[in-house]
Design a protein that fits this description.
The complex is a heterodimer of chains A (346) and B (317). By secondary structure, chain A is of the alpha/beta class. Chain A is built from eleven helices and twelve strands. In chain A, 31% of the residues lie in helices and 21% in strands. Chain B is built from 13 helices and no strands. Classes of the chains: A alpha/beta (346), B mainly alpha (317).
Chain lengths: 346, 317
């Protein structure tokens, strides 16, 4: 698998690379929810960036804050009982400071998003074509005919056979894989600079998963769209991403180039995730797993949040952990200099 | 389109057995009502012989099943017979009185549709706020309030107290529309309150479910305005619930009209059926039941067709 840093002649791409090296910069993003009595923090100072045309993977178990990060970038968290601090710099503005009206011009137009459940993510009572056309018309002043043509073209671009027939269909008459293709067509129809894919293949059959991943890679390379790819499947990240970040309990615990992280992880949690990947050598033996579970945001351990589940825990782990730099990489572990953690044989 | 035509055909085919069943049940129940129309028709101090003659004249001496059979055959020919008491043609009677009932029923439905949906939407988009709690409380109260009691309160305050509306009676809609509307307002409001409460509750819960669904999040992620999300996608997705509920509420309005027409002395089919049933004037009762059954079935047919047009999932069923 090659990781081409695409540099296409796409105008979208050209514009954003002229602005600087970074398309999306998330700085110290914290999110808290109110349950009626208390505020509790679900994201803690999350920072990362995405360059134009780049594919960045976000991994972690369920409940680590991956989807929340995606939703808060698009401002899709509930308005009541939710607080965001920090910065989300995108296209010259700070999305955290944006009002609903400005945010609407970003959603679907500059940042597209596809979700995990293609079965329930499309409105059942409108045709597929209408739902894509509606997206086009929300952002461009075009005739309904031209919007429809763009919708059909978008359906063709995601490899749907006879796209104009498909446009007249309701989601219920499409298979899961087809629906996810429709979702991708809808997310990309306005040619956004960034596509956030939240577990786009988790609900699909394995063979369809591979097709959808190939499609996403191909489209992002062809159009120069950067991809923020959220998954719990490290294998998919290894195949398709150039950089990745590991999230644990609402924090980024490791980031860096995928190849380096996979061969030598710096954070015990990343190492644990890698160790849990099924491999041929584990045949007939028990698959290794990380003991315990992700702590609840209401009950965060003091100090290192991973310490209660960590095999390498020491007295110093009771301190609050900061991201430690290692060249292009970072890890939220004070022992990351000295620990030698097993990687994955990729 | 083929699917919808088939749906209409199937429903029309069901019309006949439903009509036969409904009129037969009503006819049987009428037999249980005490009193004898022949005695009433014969007048005071009539001889036994005179009563027997009248019984024979109107076929009241025939066995119950024969009487029903004769009525049904005539009805199928379009002849609903004459009132036993007044000798008026039943179809004429219904034609005179049905507009009064339809006016208050449609009026009530319009009020209930507008207010009920507005309250339901307001509550669903503000779940957990004081407004939501207030609307939910109001709806629980509205479901529990008997319409006749409410009717009397409305008359006592708005009509007798403030003289805003006439107390009783009705006016013809075609020749005197303003007076007709004024006469119909209090009965329509009294009828509408229960329907408003029901609609507000159901719209609220259906809309909350829709607004929490994954596809609403997708719509917001596409950059649609919250207005488009709510009024286009939200309402379209609850349209089946809403229309089905409205169809059911029509039945409720017709049955409620019997009591409300009595309270407001409105010459509608509701009061007609009430007095006729008490006098065992079975041709009139049967005629009204027949007409109401046809109306209710046709309304439900329209609801089904609209559902199939609005929601592809309903068309499949």
């Amino acid at each position: 698998m090659t990781h081409v840093e695409t540099n296409t002649s796409s105008p979208v791409h050209a514009k954003s690379s002229a602005r600087g090296e970074r398309l999306l910069e998330v700085r110290d993003l914290s999110v808290s929810f109110n349950d009626g009595n208390d505020w509790f923090e679900v994201l803690n100072k999350v920072s990362f960036d995405v360059k134009p045309g780049e594919t960045v993977g976000v991994v972690g178990e369920s409940g680590c804050g991956k989807s929340l990060t995606a939703l808060s970038i698009l401002g899709l968290l509930p308005r009541r009982g939710c607080r965001r601090t920090g910065q989300i710099l995108f296209d010259g503005g700070d999305l955290v400071a944006f009002g609903e009206g400005d945010m609407r011009k970003v959603r679907g137009r500059k940042i597209g998003m596809i979700f995990q459940e293609p079965m329930s993510a499309l409105d059942p009572v409108f045709t597929v074509g209408y739902q894509i056309t509606e997206t086009v018309r929300a952002h461009f002043k075009v005739s309904s005919r031209e919007a429809h043509e763009r919708a059909v073209a978008a359906l063709a671009a995601v490899g749907i056979p006879s796209p104009s027939n498909c446009a007249a269909m309701y989601p219920m008459s499409l298979s899961g894989g087809m629906r996810q293709r429709v979702m991708i067509a809808m997310a990309l129809v306005c040619e956004p600079q960034l596509l956030i894919a939240d577990e786009p293949t988790t609900a699909l059959d394995v063979t369809i998963q591979a097709q959808i991943m190939d499609l996403l890679e191909e489209l992002s390379q062809r159009t120069g769209t950067a991809l923020l790819f959220i998954t719990h499947n490290l294998g998919l990240v290894a195949e398709s991403c150039s950089r990745m970040l590991t999230m644990y309990a609402g924090q980024v615990v490791e980031n860096g180039p995928v190849d380096e992280i996979l061969s030598r992880p710096l954070h015990p949690y990343t190492a644990g995730l890698l160790g849990s990947l099924p491999q041929a050598k584990h045949r007939k033996s028990k698959l290794p797993s990380i003991p315990g579970r992700v702590p609840s945001p209401r009950d965060m351990p003091a100090g290192c949040r991973f310490a209660p589940r960590c095999t390498y825990v020491e007295a110093g782990c009771r301190m609050s952990q900061q991201l430690v730099g290692h060249g292009a990489r970072h890890a939220r572990c004070w022992r990351s200099d000295t620990l030698v953690l097993p990687g994955a044989a990729v | 389109m083929g699917k919808i035509l088939r749906l209409v055909g199937r429903r029309l085919w069901q019309l006949l057995p439903i009509i036969v069943f409904a009129t037969f049940v009503v006819f049987s129940l009428l037999q249980l009502v005490p009193g004898d129309p022949a005695v009433v028709l014969a007048g005071d101090y009539a001889s036994e012989q005179r009563i027997a003659e009248i019984r024979q004249l109107y076929g009241l001496d025939q066995p119950f099943l024969v009487q029903y059979g004769v009525w049904l055959l005539h009805a199928l020919e379009g002849n609903l017979g004459r009132s036993l008491l007044t000798s008026e043609s039943v179809s004429q009677l219904i034609l005179y009185r049905l507009p009064n009932t339809l006016l208050i029923a449609v009026y009530a439905l319009v009020i209930a549709g507008l207010v009920g949906v507005a309250l339901g939407v307001a509550a669903a988009t503000r779940v957990g706020t004081r407004l939501d709690a207030f609307i939910t409380g109001l709806a629980s109260l509205g479901v529990a309030l008997p319409s006749f009691w409410l009717a009397m309160i409305l008359v006592a305050t708005l009509s007798l107290g403030l003289h805003w509306f006439p107390t009783t009676g009705a006016a013809p809609l075609l020749t005197d529309p303003w007076s007709a509307i004024m006469h119909a307002t209090l009965p329509a409001v009294a009828l509408a309150v229960g329907v408003i409460a029901e609609l507000a509750r159901q719209v609220r819960s259906a809309l909350i479910e829709v607004l929490n669904s994954q596809y609403i999040r997708t719509l917001r992620a596409k950059g649609l305005s919250s207005g488009a999300v709510l009024w286009k996608h939200g309402l379209r997705n609850i349209s089946v619930t809403l229309l089905t509920l409205l169809g059911l509420q029509v039945n409720r309005l017709f049955s409620g009209a019997v009591v409300i027409e009595a309270v407001f002395a409105i010459p509608g089919v509701g009061s007609l059926v009430a007095t006729s049933a008490l006098n065992k004037d079975f041709p009139v009762v049967q005629g009204v039941v027949l007409v109401l059954v046809v109306i209710v079935i046709l309304i439900n047919l329209v609801v089904d067709v609209l559902n199939a047009l609005l929601d592809p999932r309903a068309a499949e069923a």
